[in-house]
Amino acid sequence: MPVVNRIAGLADEMEGWRKHLHTIPELSFDCFKTAAFVAERLREFGIEEIHEGIAKTGIVAIIEGREPGPTVGLRADMDALPMQEETGAEHASQTPGAMHACGHDGHTTMLLGAAKYLAETRNFAGRVALIFQPAEEDGGGGGRMVEAGIMDRFDISQVYGMHNAPGEPEGRFRTSPGALMAAVDTFTINITGVGGHAATPHLTKDPVAAAVGFYTAIQTIVSRNHDPVKDVVVSVTQIHTGSAENVVPEKAFINGTVRTYDPAVQDMVERRLNEIVKGQAAAYDVAAELIYTRWYPATINNPEKAEFAAQVAREVVGPDAVLLNDDREMGAEDFSYMLNARPGCYLFLGQGDTAPVHHPKFDFNDAIAPIGASFFARMVETALPLKEG
After folding, report:
1. Residue ranges with strand state E in 222-271
2. How far apart are CA 35 and CA 379, in angstroms?
3. 34-59 burial: b if 16+ Cβ within 10 Å, else e
4. With a threshold of 0.90, does the pTM exceed it?
5. Pairwise CA distance, residues 16 & 14, whole Å
6. 183-294: which CATH topology?
7. Residues 368 and 170: beta-carbon distance below 8 Å
8. Residues carrying an active site annotation
9. How far apart are CA 384 and CA 162, in angstroms?
10. How far apart are CA 347 and CA 173, in angstroms?
11. What averages of pLDDT result for each successive group of 10 residues across the chain (389 residues)?
12. Cα-atom radius of gyration of the chain, to the nearest Å?
């Protein structure tokens, strides 16, 4: 089963959809134009059951097969990033300060391509729930849609999603049974001292010196408190303070991210951050507040569904273009909420030698859209086979 001929024939149409979506990037939950475009296409395909406004702008559309059976969920994210585009493409973003720098325009297009084919053929026994989700980049839209009850409301029994992968060979799938992507937390430390003239530092309580001390102490969490055979990242990514060379400021701000797989490691990092903040504040005679927020959980594939998804992928692109048991990574993905709710699998689809995601010159490779759409379609037909005869 290579790329579906009918879907291959939709390549130009899909490219048109994708490039239009690329021109209208929308952020977080405010995917109004994108959702309207998706709903319009779904109606054109003859899909009658379309549920809009889930988690503000999310959509779940149902395609009924030729025979009764369970429901398979297929998910695509729709939101963009708050970045200024530098591709120079004719289809570049028309919204200043926003661009599809992660390929969600392509993810949406692949699911639309599969939807058109499945609505035409309906060669399956059961139902397909097409999940178009906002706010993957910021806000946890996947979690919000699960909280809205889509898994129970639409009786979804298993769920699948995918992401483009720059730098990977074009058309190669990769995934892994079990852990695939990390949980992500954020921390903010607000430091308050006593400002004053830089010529009389003894009359101040310097938050700059404290911030440097905090940063150094935070580095010991990984180097001295953590079992090195378990994955963890603790990165300080922002330190903001000061306004002039002759002023000791009153406040400093530290921000960063934590990536883990093991909840016990996650608990350890949060505990140590609290202890460091308390101890360093006393050492530098400043006040300090830690705000620690747990965001997306780890993305954990169901082992059986990962094996199944890999087999379907092999039938689309051939056995040499599918990598199972891939290394897990420290990026995060809010599809994790859906995998916590139902068994399923998340995969990566190589898009060749392009700019990386979250880069101002990134653009989705339209050549892989028929491959991704074919995978979604074959996934449904394989998971929900019609009875012989």
Report:
1. 232-241, 247-248, 251-260
2. 24
3. bbebbbebbeebebeebbeebbbbbb
4. yes
5. 5
6. Alpha-Beta Plaits (3.30.70)
7. yes
8. 79, 136
9. 19
10. 7
11. 88 98 98 98 98 98 98 98 98 98 98 98 98 96 98 98 98 97 97 98 98 98 93 97 98 98 96 98 98 97 98 98 93 97 98 98 98 98 89
12. 24
- Contact (CB, 8 A) for 18 and 109: yes
Domain boundaries, the chain: 5-182+298-383, 183-294
Q: Rounded to an integer, what distance in angstroms lies between the CA atom of residue 146 and that of residue 163?
A: 20
pLDDT at 389: 52
| Sign of the torsion formed by the C-alpha atoms of 301, 307, 309 and 313 | positive
- The pair of structure tokens assigned to 113 is 């391509």
SS3 string, 271-298, reads HHHHHHHHHHHHHHCCEEEEEEEECCCC
Tell me the CA end-to-end span of the chain in Å, nearest whole number.
Answer: 21
The single residue listed with the structure tokens 């980049």 is: 137
Amino acid at 267: D
pLDDT on residue 2: 76
Largest CA distance in the chain: 91
Q: Spell out a b/e string for 127-159, using b for 16 or more CB atoms within 10 Å of the CB, else e.
A: bbbbbbbbbbbebbbbbbbbebebbeebebbbb
Residues in the chain, how many? Answer: 389
Contacts of 298 (CB under 8 A, 6+ apart): 179, 181, 182, 183, 260, 261, 336
Q: Two tokens at 83? A: 């970045």
Strand partners, 162: 347
Query: Is 183-294 the same fold as 5-182+298-383?
Result: no
* pLDDT at 1 (0 to 100): 47
Does the domain spanning 5-182+298-383 belong to CATH 3.40.50.720?
Answer: no
| Predicted local distance difference test score (pLDDT) of residue 388 | 75
